[in-house]
Amino acid sequence: MIFNKDSWKEIFDTIQKNKLRTFLSGFTVAMGIFIFIILFGFGNGLQNTFATFFTDDKVNTIRIYPTSTTIPYRGYESNRKITFTNKDLQNLKKEFKNELENIVVRNTFYNQIKYKEKSNNYEVRAVSPGHKEAEMTIMMNGRYISEKDIADKTKHVVIGRLVKEDLFGKEDAIGKYIFGSGHSWRVVGVFQDEGGDREERKLYVPYTTMQAIQKNTDNIDQMIVIYDPKMTYNQSVILEKKLEIFIKKTKIISPNDNRGIYISNTGEELEKSQKFSSILHIIILFIGIGTLIAGVIGISNIMVFVVKERTKEIGIRKAIGATPRSIIAMILQESIFITTISGYAGLILAMITLKLIGNNLAAKYFIVNPYIDTDNALWATFILILFGAIAGYIPARKAANIKPIIALRND
């Protein structure tokens, strides 16, 4: 019957005569698949958002900051400001040499940087060479801060892509000198960063050089511990705890003090974000499935109305010899045809909508590049069509079993 010209002509004639009913049937299907795909795409967009938070830095890092104590301990009063020094750095390297890949220093300053007639205020990070790996910095030209720079306390600087554009324009920056912190700095590299514009408006200098400039202080603002990437999430949490215990012991901070030092485990943050993102995606998926179910129910209700509307027609067909099977096939063929066309129309419209949305919702709603895999979209549409056909089969079968005399009497 599916290749029967007469049956297709009859379907199109029926559609032409019942435009409103056909539109309502198709609209229900199209909206069901459209809403499902949009919601599913938004769920993937939220997962993209969580993922982007961790593309800027390595995830196998633990960041340690000194703060102030809140509990008196061993003769020291509360509110004591803790400071890290080069000695603390060496102690950590020695104590955890078998568990860590590196410990990175970061001190942060804000300075006005000048080149010829141009100047601007920038964040200057005084770092050790391992900072390049911790921040996943990408070198565009030249090189990064080296161990020799640290040892010799050189006045070398690595500038961000946008700093280079601000101060040098199209001029080559490598080998040129900029002025900041009362000193001239030789540009040895230009970098870019996946973190975006904000990250590319920074400058990196050797931390030992800045310590010498800052009245020979050896203070450290932040230490970034890089551990073995093969470590599991649970192992990283254990390492985090061991670091906390060791630092509190050496800095004479009460074990019960929640302050004194602040530790941020990027791996732990990633794990929590992934769990939250997965739960959020499941919730969105359930809402989307609910929308599909509502679409199926809508199709079923419309099919009940369609069959009731055609009861007399079905009675005439049975009276002249049509079998229940042929009547069911006739109704289902029309139903499946409308459902398929409408379903894929909703699918295409939803895919285009997601494409047009792009990053437009990123700033306000934190949805980055919402998308749905084509296979998932096609399967969702196929399932809606399948269950729509099943929903249509029940009233069609009931109508096909009505006796002709009863069908002809129906008003």
Description:
The chain has 411 residues and is α+β, with helices and mostly antiparallel strands. It has 14 helices and 12 strands. Strands 1, 3, 4, 5, 6, 7, 8, 9, 11 and 12 form a 10-stranded mixed beta sheet that branches. The chain has a two-stranded antiparallel sheet with strand order 2-10. A hairpin with a 2-residue loop joins strand 7 (177-180) and strand 8. The longest helix is centred in the C-terminal third of the chain and has 44 residues, at 266-309. The mean pLDDT is 86.
Features of this protein?
411 residues; alpha+beta; 10-stranded mixed sheet; two-stranded antiparallel ribbon; 12 strands; elongated
Structural class of the secondary structure composition? alpha+beta
- Taking all residues together, what is the mean pLDDT? 86
Low-pLDDT regions: none
Query: Major beta sheet, specifics?
Result: 10 strands, mixed
Percent of residues in helical segments?
Answer: 40-55%
Number of strands: 12
Rg calc = 34 Å
Overall morphology: elongated
Strand-and-helix sequence, N→C?
A: HHEEHEEHEHEHEEEHEEHEHHHHHH
Number of helices: 14
CA-CA gap between termini: 29 Å
Strand content: 15-25%
